[in-house]
Write a sequence for this structure.
């Protein structure tokens, strides 16, 4: 027996199984292999999109990452088992001539039984190797089942993510427009209902992103269905309210505080898993349109504004790392040719 091939095969196979189980069942994200593959593929797509100045290129990144992870699992399990067979000359033989299989034939045999298609033109030579072949065939079935099981909730979460983005976008196309659209009877109580409707969804997306890190890389080039820029606008709107708007004009705390904390949890997930805060904050919080509309505003101390620096650095990094620019935050989200002008006021 070739001990080196045997140990290498067991190690590769164990690493693949651990990565598969950790990625699909752990609540804390991708395994060591999947994480590196995800980062590598996203890095390629991101660099190309930056050179082409075309954010649409990122739309294919998510599905390519998923395919890359699945292919990685299959290849590592395949290679690992093939090395185990190859470590023992004569473990696999021709079903007709009983001659020992070559390395290429061992690879073919391993892939054939891993795909649960049978033995092909080769068979295991002894009872022990036949049992091992049966185990491989069974593990191939499990691999396919787990892969499908992993994909279903990911696709469901992507749909939920797009839906949440549309709900937030409907509140306004910028931080100030969100506030202006919900200013009525001298206060912002109109925000209470939408905040109550989206708070749980924001918290859920944060946890889904932790369980399925690949969600972060399913990019939408249209602002309407892109969660990150819309979530950044909502958070900036809440920051403006907390800093510049007198407290008695706020929505009730039971609506405002949970929404803010849900976004905080989402941002915390990002910094723990995907990105670091930007080195500098973006432009100061805008309040010029609010003041032009006659909405009462405060003049906060610089120390109070500085308390939001880290949060706003995370928001900036979140946008830039997803291919968005700060200027995109103020762009309209709905097509003007699909509705009445008064319904498009943003």
């Amino acid at each position: 027996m070739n001990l080196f091939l045997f140990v290498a095969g067991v190690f590769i196979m164990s690493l693949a199984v651990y990565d598969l189980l950790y990625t699909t069942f752990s609540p804390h994200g991708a395994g060591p292999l999947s994480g590196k593959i995800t980062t590598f593929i996203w890095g390629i797509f991101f660099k190309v999109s930056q050179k082409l100045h075309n954010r649409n290129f990122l739309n294919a990144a998510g599905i390519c990452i998923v395919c890359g992870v699945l292919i990685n699992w299959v290849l590592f399990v395949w290679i690992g088992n093939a090395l185990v067979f190859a470590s023992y000359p004569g473990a696999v033989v021709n079903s007709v001539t009983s001659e020992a299989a070559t390395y290429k034939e061992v690879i073919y045999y391993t892939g054939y039984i891993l795909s649960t298609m049978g033995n092909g033109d080769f068979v295991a030579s002894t009872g022990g190797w036949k049992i091992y072949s049966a185990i491989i065939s069974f593990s191939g079935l499990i691999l396919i089942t787990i892969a499908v099981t992993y994909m279903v909730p990911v696709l469901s979460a992507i749909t939920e993510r797009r839906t949440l983005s549309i709900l937030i976008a409907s509140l306004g196309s910028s931080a100030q427009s969100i506030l202006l659209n919900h200013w009525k009877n001298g206060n912002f109580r109109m925000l209470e209902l939408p905040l109550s409707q989206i708070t749980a969804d924001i918290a859920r997306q944060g946890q889904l992103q932790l369980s399925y890190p690949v969600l972060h890389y399913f990019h939408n080039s249209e602002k309407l269905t892109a969660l990150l820029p819309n979530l950044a606008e909502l958070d900036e709107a809440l920051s403006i309210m907390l800093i510049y708007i007198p407290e008695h004009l706020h929505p009730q705390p039971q609506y405002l505080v949970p929404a803010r904390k849900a976004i905080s949890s989402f941002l915390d997930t990002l910094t723990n898993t995907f990105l670091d805060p930007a080195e500098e904050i973006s432009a100061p919080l805008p309040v010029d349109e609010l003041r032009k509309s006659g909405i009462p505003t405060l003049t906060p101390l610089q120390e109070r504004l500085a308390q939001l620096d880290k949060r706003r650095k995370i928001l900036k990094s979140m946008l830039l790392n997803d291919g968005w620019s700060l200027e995109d935050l103020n762009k309209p989200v709905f097509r003007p040719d699909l509705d009445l002008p008064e319904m498009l006021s943003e």
